Structures
1.
Amino acid sequence: MEKILKEVLDTNRKYTNYGQVASYIPELKNARRDDLGICIVDKDNNIYKVGNCNTKFTIQSVSKTIVLAMALMDNEWTHVFSKVGMEPSGDPFNSIMKLETNDTKKPCNPMINAGAIVTTSLIKGSSFADKEERMLNFFRRLAKNDNIGINYDVYKSEKMSGDRNRAMAYLLKNDGFIQGNVEEVLDLYFKQCSIEIDAVDLARIGMNLASYGIDIENGERVMSERVSRMVKTFMMTCGMYDASGEFAIKVGIPAKSGVGGGIMASVPNRMGIGVYGPALDKKGNSIAGVKMLEDLSHRLNLNIF
Ligand code: GLN
């Protein structure tokens, strides 16, 4: 397996020359554009990794999957889906447009910023600190890594430059999709995006979803089977933003990307895959990361359809 991964990495390294490292959050532009790594954790808990798999980066939108799982565990599902929809938006991840033009004004799905701000607002806790702690602990549990924490430089950078998210959050409050203190919801959202992980963490989280919510190491249930199915389904239909259809055709694996350059993929009953490559295409997906997943999907016959 390591040999295959090395071939995948070497073949697709050329794509790190294309695209741009994200800079709309100023702190993200410090990433090294030629870093590239891929890690697999399989159902027998074997771990295979090549390239920059220990390089830390912020999870960004990949966090939307985990926070969705939490929202579904903390609330009645009918309540969650009265606040956020189930349909791909076909628009960029940070688009505000459909919050005005949709009949219901409800965010299309939890994998775009507007929908994710809603799911973040649904996390339960006795105080802000308690919500933050619960969230971090869930990420740590899924990644099996107690050292996971927040990158405060990225967090501050996001908070400072996050006016588009701020605008959406106030609109969502105005239309009744989030309750309470908007700045507090945004703060939690910026923090979840600024959680620092590596490709190995992403592969482990992906494996928890691939095993339908069972921790393969100790047999414990980390989320219900139905929640794990919903998260993977949203990854399949909406996880790669407005490139989700093309990704489904070419790669055929549930996956979620983030503008930090990470992609988490989950192959049901088989493996979790974590990818890192910070140079992004115009839609915000890692160019070399997508190419590696496409190549790997063909070599290992991972397409779920
Ligand atoms: N923190 C980023 C934002 O809110 C996450 C976006 C992303 O990864 N696509 O803009």
Note: The beta strands are 20-21, 37-42, 47-51, 57-58, 149-150, 195-197, 255-257, 262-267, 271-276, 279-280.
2.
Amino acid sequence: MSYEIVIGLEVHLQLNTKSKVFCGCSTDFGSAPNSQACPVCLGFPGSLPVLNRKALELGAKVAIALNCRIAEKIRFDRKNYFYPDLPKDYQISQFNQPLAQAGALNIICGETEKNIRIRRVHLEEDTGKLFHQKDSSLIDFNRSGIPLLEIVSEPDMNSPEEAYLYLTALKSILEYIDVSDCNMEEGSLRCDANISLRKKGDTALGTKTEIKNMNSFKGVKAALEYEARRQADLLENGGRINQETRLYNAEKGVTEPMRSKEEAHDYRYFPEPDLAPFDFEESFLNAIEKDMPELPEPKKNRFVKDYQLSNYDAAIMASDKGVADYFEKCADLCDNPKTAANWLMGDISAYMKDNNISIKDLSLKPAQLSGMLKMIDSGIITGKVAKTLLIEIIQTGKDPEKLVKEKGLEQISDINLLEAAINQVIAENQKSAEDFRSGKDNAVMFLVGKVMQKTKGRANPNKVNEMLREKLKGVK
Ligand code: ADP
Ligand code: MG
Ligand code: ZN
């Protein structure tokens, strides 16, 4: 394609405060409709907003984690528009002077890192939620006034894949600092994707469309892939892009026009008179900085340095805080960080996927995993046995050492026992033995597999390999 894709993302994040951003109503999810709505939520005349300190604190935490410059003064503005989910007819938001600006985060695309700039981070309130029925619509105001943080990137991404990586990296940071559930399916994280094309080499931005209504990161990627193709086809055929908002239709896998794009002046922004501007106290920000945990990127770098993991493995180990803590405990207990990482990325990750659980629900303790890894390292059990042992440890909760003794799973290195199994296997698989003798080196692997089967995975595979070769060559 002779076009370059340009993407900028707007992410709305529900901050997990106990009460709403401008009133004391609860933010609990799933309560009876309209049971958490007061005159402020409902926009009654004369009701007054009061800023929730915790919401401001969580917003500032995000801004610091994203390396933003934080505003000296906090101000709010009214964004005016009419919609049934917004009875005040305006949303309290921030316009000219957002909470924070000019941040950045790194994404890893294959072997290279790319810096994606964050344009702004601002605080605003959520709206009510509409439920459209056949002949009527219902509205629940429990959601109105839940604190939202809008995180707007610069148009620095050049493929749907990069947009996906940005969202993944952002979510990882947000989860580390524990500011939101970050659940796209449940709507606590929402993403609008802006995309345009331009001729390769051009510096001016092309006309963009904004896509809404995706409910997973994969959905964002798929919607952007569709939209990039749609725009390219249009441009190839001499058409022009209409600046508009489009909805992603996940069932059909297409984007459909929703409305022509509104401009900032349509909203008649003006300063919110009910919330006086104020300065951040230095101690407020200092306390947040002091409490900031180690973030995914520095953690990844430390894993490379301290545990000699590859960049790739370290990034996976550091991307989720639960996994990172788990990995670090194992690595310290078993002196073999690389193996611990391999098991976490391999069998354990597969187990969690199969059972639809996350690491915090995993009953396998780091000490049990490291106990098992130590037994592999010291040759007490084979890697093959460990695979089934792992599941048994999880299911029974027993210590690996105990289980190995109970079930007699120790590795067999006894020459006589191995020789007996090998003789049997050769007798039963004459064809493969012949193949090996006539030069097919691979045939030996098949025979090793058979010996492993016969010994229920307990035979020392290296020894078996060695003995089989000698035997087949007639050395012994
Ligand atoms: P709007 O006022 O339409 O919301 P903004 O300029 O505020 O537009 O940008 C919103 C988002 O769209 C930002 O993430 C920005 O990076 C992105 N963006 C702006 N212009 C383009 C463009 N031409 N192509 C792709 N993304 C863009
Ligand atoms: Mg926008
Ligand atoms: Zn309220």
Note: Residues 86 and 127 are 6 Å apart (CA to CA).
3.
Amino acid sequence: MASQPKPKTLVMKFGGSSVGTPKAMQEVIDIIQQSRADWPNMIIVVSALAGVTNLLLDGAAQAAKGSTEKLPEAVERLRQLHYAIADTLVAPDGRASVKHEVVELIAEFGNLCHAISILGEASPRALDAVASLGERMSVRLLAPALSGAGLPAAYVDATRCIVTDRRFQNAHPDFAATAEKSRATIWPILEAGKIPVVTGFIGATPDGITTTLGRDGSDFSAAIVGAVLPADDVWIWTDVNGVMTADPRVIQNACTIPELTYREMSELVYFGGKKPHPKAIRPVVEAGVGLRICNTFNPTHPGTRLINEKPNGKKNGDEILKAVTAIRGQRLVTVEGRGMLGVPGVAARTFGAVASTGTSVPLITQASSEQSICFSVPSSAADNVVAALQKAFATELVDHDIDRIWATDDVSLVTTVGEGLRETPGVAGRVCNALGQLQINIIAIAQGSSEVSISLVVSAADTDAAVKAIHSLIV
Ligand code: ASP
Ligand code: MG
């Protein structure tokens, strides 16, 4: 028998702000309704209502300090937030049972907090049990709300789909086991003509203990589910019009980037771009599933689509650079000295000393003269880092093999991203020229060998002007 073509399958993920209030959740229902006709198979992944995960984790943190006085307040707040949605969006005949389920989960929160307060500590495993309650409540509201709107739906705890290791609070999925379990759980619901409404953020170990994928992990959940089913497309609904060319608070004419390659996206995310969660990119790329970012509050806007390759023929100068971002609040640390030339191991010892302070380094440059290594660290860490380096190189400083270890005042890393940088000569020159014309001094430059981004270090006071100047090369 010839196999039937597989019906088109879409995973849509909605974040906390998209379901935070009855009004927002109604928008979500409207969006699902509008897309339903085009997508016979539709899976929804949803976060906890806005603020709920923080509320839960704060309660657990208080309890770990032995304090449960504020617990009744938190319980009442959780009840109100969820009841408001049940009262508005769940049909009267189902409302009591939905509220009952929510109340039971809130009671679990109370019990867990009491247990934590008796122990006087919250283990990562206990924190995951607490944090998971937010998503477990939100799906129990959205599924009946959809059913009531004529879109038959069933909620699914992702503990029945996503199998992870035991790294509580930052668990990693086992893709093979997850594929098997997700398909076994989700396909029958789809075949019954229903919309599975799956908890974001959570999974379970092979023996069924609840884990979480890390804060803001629901994007990752959607990507995992989309990759293993596999879906045709994953759409991440958020509260902005996709990925922007720059921060609209700094650049008035910042606009949505219609298409971005996966590599451009990863560099952008790395340099502080907003969405989607960096971990969400890899599973969909590897599975060849499409990814789109769109705005719940502006659903007709096309948003940003992530693509695998740069479309052919789009090489004219205006499309080389796609976006510019700034990371503020950094300082540049320099280790310099003539005695470093040709001495192996200086870089390793430098970064060993930095790592010992628990600081991560977003940008590194070393000129081929080998007389200095320069890198940036968050301003708050700079003094510690310099002290650690002075200790590590105490002998070399005395011997003047290293002359100086020092940190600049505050700087920003301004990064511009674009796949076209690779084959287009002269772009770095144009970027530098744009700053030169405004008399902005470039303190350091780094370009990774991926050639998808260039980062310039400028003084804090020059940040906005530098971002504006580079943005004028984009839009
Ligand atoms: N609710 C979780 C959090 O706030 C996951 C998410 O929102 O994606 O971190
Ligand atoms: Mg959230």
Note: The chain has a mean pLDDT of 92.
4.
Amino acid sequence: MKVINKIENNLKNLHAQDPKIAKLVDQELDRQRNSIELIASENFTYRGALEAAGSVLTNKYAEGYPDHRYYGGCEVIDKVEKIAIERVCKLFGCKYANVQPHSGSSANLAAYHALANIGDTIMGLALDNGGHLTHGSPVNFSGIYYDSQSYTLNKETEQLDYDLILKQAKKVKPKVIVAGYSAYPRKISFKKMRDICNKVGAYLLVDMAHIAGLVATKQHPNPFPYAHVVTSTTHKTLRGPRSGIILTNDKELAKKINKAVFPGLQGGPLMHIIAAKAVCFKYAASAEYKNYIKKTMANAKAIGKGMEDGGLRLITGGTDNHLCLVDVSVARATGKQVEAACDKAFITVNKNTIPNEKLSPFVTSGIRVGTPAVTTRGFTEKDCYKVGQNIAKIAFNLNANGNCKPAVLKEVQKDSKAMLKARPLYAGSQY
Ligand code: DSN
């Protein structure tokens, strides 16, 4: 069985040249191996993507775009970027792609730059309702440079309310409406969002970072043909390297997007990361990956059922995607306490605000639980149901000081260790 070990993980030279950093990389690999990773935005990328990201392509400056560079010696690099573009366009069924953004945030910044002027009104879901920082939060460039008029979820259903969004859009007349979220467990109707945009003359920008893998495998409706522009990261459900992309079907917008990314926002592209993105686009088109996404979604339902059977409340009553948003206040616990107590039981989740939140974002009444990473390492629905039950067990067994009761903690630790041992990370040939 092939297992990445500390030396094999391309670190032989690093150990010789910088043992301090090499040791920390080893420690992080151990940490990833020894925890049930349920952060909905994380995953474990392919060995091939790790190798491409650690390759000599990092040495090359390639400002510009394929066949139009500001440096010599780009003949190989051009081929890499063209392959990445071709693959991602085919994957998502669109005509134009920019694969140079370094992250989802810079992809969104470039998209706004292409679609709006500074000071124009943008309308995204409020951060505390499940939106993203870059969708208009007042502490982010998107809320500082643009007039951000956030929409919220329906307070009763805890879901998107398209009538409410239309009502607000008619009032504030946004230049851009953003759809796509960080902590929303239900399907999004891009058609309804586009209808709203058409009624008020706005562009529809879809940030599909969380659900890109579901879209690629047709397990969630595609933002195309409804979105004017689509942004995404490549490291969440898509399981690639940490990075971003921008897609469109509109030739004029594609030109604006390219200008916004370079020279508007970035200098030289990270060619090693673009190569790693190409690797993940290749795998995302495979039958094996489609099966992985289906399992990820089934695992999200199973973990949700485990938490629900244990007494916790799922926001919206369930999930249609890769994550559950969970109300832990029913256990008289805070998200902060459950996050910290789960950590001690080798389960990694993040505290998260929930709709109608009463606590601060540092404390919160909820947690967000996602299954892309554990599914990559082979967790089954049975495993996930058990983990869900254990999370609930922890939440309902906190002492007054917020720590889990020692006997319960010990039991859950034992379960976690057994599951982690049975599903080793970077072992075998599955990725
Ligand atoms: N911070 C990411 C998340 O956890 O959803 C989004 O960028």
Note: Residues 401 and 422 are 33 Å apart (CA to CA).
